[in-house]
Amino acid sequence: MHSGNCLCGQIRYEVDDELDIVVNCHCQFCRRAHGSEFVPVAMLAANKLRILEGEELLSRYEVTKLNSFRCFCSICGTRLFNHNPSLNYISLVTATLSDSTGLNSVANVNMESRSLGFEQTNGLPSFDTVPPMEKLQELK
Ligand SMILES: [Zn+2]
Ligand SMILES: [Zn+2]
Asked: Mind listing the domains of the chain with CATH numbers?
């Protein structure tokens, strides 16, 4: 069981999952939303995440092109997770976890829209898009 919260602490969640599939997402949406060259996210089934407090403060920005929602705290702006209802899984921003001990990225994903001025040197397998979960499972 893992838990986490946003910067202001009003949204708290827990995750009933090992979080053993973490990827560095380099897509243009993550880069802009987070103001960062890439963002480590843990992939998990949507029903594994439970909002304990502050659900009413959770804002959802829809990226219509992707049919997915970027979910963040409306008070402090912390990006917590992304949810694509048609895929039924979420990508949880690992930086919001209270304790990320033992978590390690297994791949770089969405490299086709990465920041061109940014040279990735971490040596992880890299993919143009997000590979199927079965493929990611093999990498952990
Ligand atoms: Zn907050
Ligand atoms: Zn992304």
From this structure: 2-113 (2.170.150.70)
